[in-house]
Amino acid sequence: MRHKKRLGRGIGSGKGKTAGRGTKGQKARGKIPATIVGSLPFYKKLPLRRGQGNPKYSPKLVPIKLSRLNVFKAKSVVDLAKLIEAKIISEKEAKKGVKILSGGEINIPLVVKLPVSKTAKESIEKKGGKVEDV
Fold first, then answer.
1. Domain spans of the chain?
2. What is the rounded CA–CA span in Å between residue 42 and residue 82?
3. What class is the 62-131 domain?
4. What is the pTM of this model?
């Protein structure tokens, strides 16, 4: 299967600068209606759109090292609200989501109600803690 040509990605790509659309004019400016009444058509007031635009951003999970959970008391329940309260993460980061990774060691048994990596789960359970699936 032939891949689609990537447009507007530099001169060396062969489809850079105007991205194979020629120069100026309505057809060079994307899918914009040309029927708005006025002295200068609406599509000519907008900048030329070259290429396909930027890739869509998807938020990444915020990683939290296992060693940072040592601030909690033994047998306490750890969830998003508790992490924000302990100032381990901000509310903005909490919206992206978090995941506990196995960085460092944990010294106390905890009940974790968050997404956890496989190795982090093993170390939590070794210390007598519990991981509940979310």
1. 1-56, 62-131
2. 52
3. alpha beta
4. 0.56
